[in-house]
Task: structure prediction
Amino acid sequence: MTGPITTGTDLARLRELNSLSVVRALRGNPPSTVTELASRTGLSRPSVDLITQILVSEGWATVIEPTGSSVVGRPARRYQFNAAAGYVIGVDVGVHKILGLVADLDGTVVHTVRRQVAPDADPQVRLAALDRAIADCFTKTKLAPDDLWALTVGVTGPVDATGRTTLFTPLPGWSAVDPVAYLTARYPCPVYVENDCKLAAVAERWHGVAQDADDIVYVLAGMRTGAGLILDGTLRRGYGGAAGEIGALRAVRWLTAPSHLENCPGAPETISPDDKAAWVFTTARAGNADAQTAVRRYVRDLAVGAAALVLALDPQVVVLGGGFSRSADLILEPLHRELQRLCLRVPEIRASTLGDESVALGALRLSLDEADQRMLSTGLSALSAARRS
Amino acid sequence: MTGPITTGTDLARLRELNSLSVVRALRGNPPSTVTELASRTGLSRPSVDLITQILVSEGWATVIEPTGSSVVGRPARRYQFNAAAGYVIGVDVGVHKILGLVADLDGTVVHTVRRQVAPDADPQVRLAALDRAIADCFTKTKLAPDDLWALTVGVTGPVDATGRTTLFTPLPGWSAVDPVAYLTARYPCPVYVENDCKLAAVAERWHGVAQDADDIVYVLAGMRTGAGLILDGTLRRGYGGAAGEIGALRAVRWLTAPSHLENCPGAPETISPDDKAAWVFTTARAGNADAQTAVRRYVRDLAVGAAALVLALDPQVVVLGGGFSRSADLILEPLHRELQRLCLRVPEIRASTLGDESVALGALRLSLDEADQRMLSTGLSALSAARRS
DNA sequence: AGAGTTTCGCTACGGTCTTGCTGAAGTCTA
DNA sequence: TAGACTTCAGCAAGACCGTAGCGAAACTCT
Result:
């Protein structure tokens, strides 16, 4: 109650806020004239003019001198956000694969790395593969170490505040490693480690099927089952980073739900357990009764946990993601029926369309958020630098 | 992406922000000198001086001229937030009672009304009783209608955005009434209706046992069982206002959990069902095996829903409220054991100490939040008024 | 080539915050 | 009791920011 109040706003901070406002008006838009920016930000033209000049001199924006344009009147100089001022990386460290994405500050992906990893690989082997994937990102895009502004890695299992997965993880031996420490020693930028379901949820809100929603329950349906929560537009981690782990409750049959698919009678013994689910779905689609029963039982078990999350949070949208979301045509409708039976108010249910890149995309988004933070703080230095000149 | 950006900050808004900052530095603190306010807000003394003068001229603050002080140096004039500039009301409309609280803008309760209502009362009777309770608040405190800045009412059952409880409520006939429309027609101030568990959760964070926590699961344990969620310091309503209604899931035995206490063998038939729980708790405390079994079974059922919420949200604290929280000595320890069995990470569990005023207190807090909003918007008019003089 | 239109660059003006200084009102000490 | 010391109140100057408005420049259309 008696603590200091940080809202002490002076003129420098006002300038900072307005600079940020201009940057936001630049980003994600085509090259803009000063007048356009002024109307978008609500600021006056001279203010925007001054700010853009500072932004250009600091390397945040580039000028596009007018070419022969088609409109009447003097053609306006156009400014563009300099997305190449920095780059970010998002990596998905899965059981079978490592997928890395490099993007510029606009979020445009400029490089993709995909590597296979043995499911039973040692943590050291997996870390080394991760390291090589990141190194590949650097060499292929000709990045200097200082060009990387943030690095986010997605792993399976609840991640605590320090980036470790001490409670539980299906990655063998991973609970003993400290990936944040490993990576911060190698790369001179902020490093984050986050749970894969949470990242996939972030991706769905960024570029997926839930861009319009602020309250989202993301359900990862695959050989593992998990959940990620977005409430009020921001990712919920929970006090210990274990939010969404409803599957740990025995009454919720998420741990054993995929076994209905794996143990479906009639499946050929020759195919691997991982491919068995795909076989069940295609066979069920063809009309096989055993396969349809297996799917029904799977959805019934999946729905219990989903219903618990829906009742607890009352989201706007439930997003079905993970490997099984490719068979959403078989899952969505019975899942909706089950939720109608179990819940008070049934939210919209949508199937993910991001495929297996969702976790890496979410990691990218988190890295971009970190980059935004950095832009905000260095925007202040840009101000004071301009003041001296 | 191309929408207008609202962060266009000009000098008037800066002044507004700083005025608000000074108001916040005044509120909840003892009468303060200008120097103290300057250090608290981070602004300079002349700025604070100017703003306080405006605040005093607008009636937001009062001056305390220095009396003979004990410190060295010239004694400072002190400013105090004028909490009597407005009042707010919070009401708990329960099954058995209606409890109303009146408070000034500092949140200091100046009047309390308590009325009994028959559990089976018609909605019209209940509304009329609510109306009389509010009228009593006005007459006893000699308030003018314009002195009331906000009115919040807590009811049982999930409340939608319009303040109605169409999904479900134990108040007979209440799902058909529109309390917001009823009250806005009578009182010239914003009116809010909110779920009782959510309000109780807010109260625990405001004046209760969870003041230090930002992520709270509040469990109402009484003849009814419910939950309220606070995440990141703000109340979670859910997209349709039905967040926390985990009790609707049949696998969670919250609906039937209290029956273990009601149907405890050995209880005298003469006492009412409502008092039976109290009898069971006292008897269990005395060592009766049947009563202890009933309590154990009750806690086991209570824990399933609590575990679902804990696993879903990973809160910092679980607060046990409701009528049964008076018997927390019997509940807390077995509840902790059960959660340890069911959850990945067990949060702290604390028992509420607010008694049966928690819902009304939470309603008061929501009214105060609305009052803060109004202060922010009228603070702008105070600025422009001062500019003209 | 001239008129019309739109943008750019520049200057003046009003508002806000900070810094620095002077006088005022107390307390402490000799 | 008088002087020194401390702290507060008020004023003035300076710096900074955003807004308003004007003339000049550049391009298109007739």
Summary: Residues 1-6, 384-389 of chain B have pLDDT under 50 and may be disordered. Residues 103 and 110 of chain B are 5 Å apart (CA to CA). The longest helix of chain B spans residues 358-388. Chain B is about 40% helix and 15% strand.
